[in-house]
Amino acid sequence: MNWPQETRQRALAACRSGQSNASVARSLGVPKGTVAWWLHQDRAGRDALPGAHRSTCHRCDGDELDPAAYSYLLGLYLGDGHIVRPKQHRVHNLTIACSDAWPGLMDEAEAAIRAVLPRNSVCRVRARGCTSVKVYSGHLPCLFPQHGPGKKHDRPILLADWQQEVINSHGWSLIRGLVHSDGSRTHNWARRTVDGEHRRHDYIRYEFTNKSADIRDIYTSTLDRLGVTWRATRRRDDVHTVSVARRASVALMDEHIGAKY
User: Closest by alpha carbon to 249, among 192, 181, 203, 189?
Assistant: First the structure.
């Protein structure tokens, strides 16, 4: 039977107000199964059905992407993140490893994941001294085409054109993610001789350490675009560090990044 559209809308309005399907059916003289079917169709049209939902993917489905959150999450992934697909799982998972010393970083990592993948559940997995913020999605390789077998510093890490466009507009978000993952803000001091007198000079320095030359290049090229002066050093143990210590550049970093918490 074809019921009037007005009856259907009255039924849906009553269900949304908290009335049961049975009471709505009795008040309108409509079969209870018909009310249930209308409610199902309405929820399906609003993508509000219970259970699993389709992951958000602007590459496959043209969904909207939060560029600032994505740039920050990309920085976290390039620093302390990894993507894997265990044999027993149907989809990939992204894990961001966070030290327990920085609970605020865990909150920001989770917030960024929720903004980029709003239809996916985020969980935290505790381990000794650290907590992993994790999400499962079949679209992670689309969002992070840098994913591949082996360690990131053993394979090329190149940004796709669309990723470069995103960080060109949200470079500070990327830098913030990289510093929060593989960087630090520290107090340093050095001795200087001024007019024959030895003086102690205290200053703030941002350091970023990563074994991947490609990731360091992404970091430094973004710093260049943002007007930040940096210096690269290499220690005997083949650890490469990018340092920002000039007063004006440190002020810029403080304005947009600050210390981890």
Answer: 203
